[in-house]
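Bug #77: duplicate submission created two jobs. Keeping one. Sequence:
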Amino acid sequence: MKMKTKGKKKKVVTALVVVALIVIGGLMSRAYMMKKGADTEAQVGNYDEIKVQDLVQTASVTGAIISAQTEQVNAGTVNAYPVKSVDVHVGDAVKAGDVLFTLDMKAMEEDLKLQKKALAAQQIGNQYSIDVAKRQAGDAQKAADQANQQAQNAAAFAQADLDAANQNVAAIADKLNNKRAEEANLLNAYNAETDDTKRAELKTQYQAAAAECKSLEADLTTAQNSAAEAQRSVTNTALSYEMSKTSGAATMAGQNEAINKASMDASSNTLSMQQSICKSEEELSKVEVKASMDGVVTDINVQVGQNYNGTGGVVISDTANLLASANVDEAVISKITEGMEVSIKTDATGDQILKGKVVYVSPTATKNSSGNGSQDQSGNATAGVSTARATYRVDVALDEANPDLRIGMTAKMNFSLAEAKGALTVPTMDIMEDEDGSKYILVEDETATAEDAKKDADKKADQTKDADKEKDAGKEALAGTGKEVLPENAKKIPVTIGVQTDFYSEVHGAGLKEGMKVLQSATDESESVDEVADTIF
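Kept job's structure:
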């Protein structure tokens, strides 16, 4: 985030420099004093004060400015083609759909034409086969219909013959019954007649009727045989008709199957050709490689005449939306979360402090996350173990766009890991540790008398005159008793540590208050002070 005014920015920078010089000077001065009075229990009369201030624990990481969205646009062709033209330059602003470069696909175009001609010829042949199958099916249908009609007609004729034969049988049977009745009547009349002449006539008539009955009986038998034959003919023709229909249906089923097979063969014959044509058309659609997003061309990996294989291409980046990105050490990554506030500085923006928030924390390491795997004698995979420290990618979105930023610039980021407002703080070096690991500070005993204070002043003077002797005596006293020796005007207060910075620590303990004097630690920390000073410089 930009500062509101240039004048305020200079004042803040000047104040920061002054504070830094004071802190560094104090540290170097204390380092010298600690070396001079090392191994004594406390620097009598050297005090710091408990201060109320805001502490922010930070982690500083160096990263780079990157685009929030970057895409490498490739043709994605299956085969390699010469690059015909490159239509953009690095730095050009493009819109989605703009042509970036074109490929020379004349050979593919000619091949596609041949494929389409071959497909057309195949389709003609396939259609001919289908038409032949359909024509044969039509002929078979006609033949089946004719056979069925003939069988049906034969059955009808047989039925008509049967009907006629049955009628003839009935007619002869009626005549025979009538003639038999006449014969019986003549016989009865003959037996009843007494006149010989009439009896002779009746006998003649009776004999004629009897002869006619025999003739009709023979005719009836013949008619009945004819009817039976007609019945058999009806049965046979009906069966023939049913067989004709069944045969015709089977023939048509075979013909229809032939049609379906011809159609399936046609589809099968052309399917692979159609697939090849689709692939060729898809390949040809990539003759112009177009931008997939709005942005600025940041890299071009093709040139005219190059035999391009479909990978690489043109890199487009969204320069309007930038991120600060860094690989964060494994010791710090667990403390960084999305939404965390970050301060960013770049050389391009000078002393201006940009503000942003963490938008991405990688769940996997980007560096040295694992070693190379191997196999044991049984062929089982074994995981490799890395001995180097892992780093994790973290992306930070800027709160406000800045026209001075460019992709690839070095970005120094300060992550606010923890914060304590209005905290009671002491210099971190004034915090001491017991053998059990618990922390404490030595504060001035406010109940001490003026006489005690004078004694402390005299003791300090004596220590200044004979520092070496006092140091040796102190060591012997401590070694002889095995107990810590506190200054007469000091009081030990156990503390717990809260937020810590490089120089100050938040402390919590009974009776602590602002302004309370804390005795400076007398442990031999001069070396670590030097290290801090060396780091600062």
